[in-house]
Structure formats: structure tokens, C-alpha cells
Design goal:
The chain has 227 residues and is mainly alpha-helical. The protein is built from ten helices and two strands, in the order αααααααββααα. It is elongated and about 120 Å long.
Length: 227
């Protein structure tokens, strides 16, 4: 090959290399754009947690809560102490207060102002509890009186009283539960010369459940229809 031919081929080879480089750049650019199209567009903020993971996390929290509630032993240090037996645990449980003791305490705190410490009330204003046919009569009646109260005229020991006794039940301002109501009635029915039997917590709770929809006080006429 002559010198002139070499001079002519050199620029041609350079041009070929430039064209090949341009083609390679275009290919890379096309591939890059294709990859970008396959990716989701970027958004501001945080991506939401997948619903599946949310359900899995909620299930784990629920199972953990159930497990702790059942097997934690209320986080008591004695729960896993092998020296603590069931019998000793029962001995440390709080004991229920004697109904007569609790009843006297509640009567003194809430009833003395009207019915007086001797349970004989105030003539013409507040009826006596000692010897009262309402106290010593039907258990169903006296329970209802304490839960919802009594209004209107009522005859006690041959004397008519026309006042209002407040309600002491769970929905009243006093919010006495079945235990407290039973204790007060048990105390009153065994005090002030009365000698009637006790009222149980179960009896009171049954009346509370049966009359849960009542929002007004009883009248004497209504109570007389109840045995």
C-alpha cells in the first residue's frame, strides 16, 4: 500500500471508530431510559406498610397480649415461686367484710341523718325502721326500695309519711353495688328490734338485673303488688 493510500485510510478508520462510539452511547442511553421506565416514579413521603405485614403485626400483638394475660401471673413475683402453693395463695386473698359490719358502717354514713342512729326516724318526717312492715316484710319490696328509692305517701306503723327516699342502686348517685345493698338491708333487718333474716348479694343482684330499665322511684302502691 502506498503512502497516499495510508493517508486516506487513516481518517476513514477514525470516522468509523467515532461512529461506533456514537452507536454505543446511543445503545447505553436507550437501555438506561428503558430501565428508568421500569422503575416506579419517586414520590414524596413514606411508602405505606403492606396490608399483609400489618395483619401479621396485629396478629402477633394480639397473641402476645393473650399469652401475657393468661400466663403472666399478674406479674406477681410469687407466680413462679415453687414454694407458693394454692392454699397459701388463698390465705393471702382479701377476705370479704362481714355483712353486719359493712352494713352498720354504710348505715352510719348514709342513713342516720334521716332514720336516726336508733333507727326510729323522726315522727311525721322520716319513718322508723324498727318494727317496720316494709323492712321486715317482703324481701323483694325492700330490695327495690333501696335500689330505686321510694316516693309518695307510705304508711308505716299506722302513720302516713309523704316524702321521698333516695335511690342507692348502681345507677344512683350513691352507686351501691349488690354487696353493699345486701349488707345494709341485712344490718337493718337484724337491728333496732328487728329479727328478720339476711338479704344475700345474689338476691340483690337478681333484682338489679330484673329492674335495670327502671329510672324512677317506686310508689307504695306499686310495691304492694310485688310479693
Amino acid at each position: 500500500m502506498s503512502a497516499d493510500e495510508n493517508k486516506q485510510s487513516a481518517p476513514r478508520q477514525s470516522t468509523d471508530r467515532l461512529e461506533q462510539g456514537a452507536v454505543s452511547d446511543e445503545s447505553l442511553s436507550a437501555i438506561h431510559h428503558q430501565l428508568l421506565r421500569e422503575k416506579p416514579e419517586p414520590v414524596e413521603g413514606f411508602s405505606p406498610i403492606p396490608i399483609f405485614l400489618l395483619f401479621v403485626f396485629s396478629a402477633l400483638v394480639f397473641v402476645s397480649g393473650v399469652y401475657l394475660a393468661r400466663y403472666s401471673g399478674e406479674f406477681s413475683p410469687k407466680a413462679f415461686d415453687p414454694s407458693v402453693t394454692a392454699a397459701s395463695a388463698e390465705q393471702t386473698a382479701p377476705k370479704k367484710i362481714d355483712p353486719m359490719v359493712l352494713g352498720e358502717r354504710l348505715f352510719t354514713q348514709n342513713c342516720v341523718a334521716c332514720h336516726q342512729a336508733n333507727g326510729m326516724g323522726l315522727p311525721g318526717a322520716f319513718p322508723p325502721l324498727g318494727g317496720s312492715e316494709w323492712v321486715n316484710g317482703s324481701e323483694q319490696r325492700v330490695i327495690r326500695i333501696l335500689i330505686h328509692g321510694l316516693t309518695g305517701p307510705v304508711e308505716v306503723a299506722w302513720m302516713t309519711y309523704n316524702g321521698a327516699m333516695p335511690a342507692f342502686g348502681p345507677n344512683s348517685g350513691y352507686r351501691f353495688n349488690a354487696e353493699k345493698i345486701a349488707a345494709v338491708l341485712t344490718y337493718v333487718r337484724a337491728s333496732f328490734g328487728n329479727n328478720s333474716g339476711p338479704i344475700t348479694e345474689e338476691q340483690v343482684q337478681a333484682v338489679i338485673d330484673a329492674t335495670s330499665g327502671r329510672t324512677t322511684s317506686w310508689t307504695a302502691e306499686e310495691l304492694k303488688a310485688i310479693e
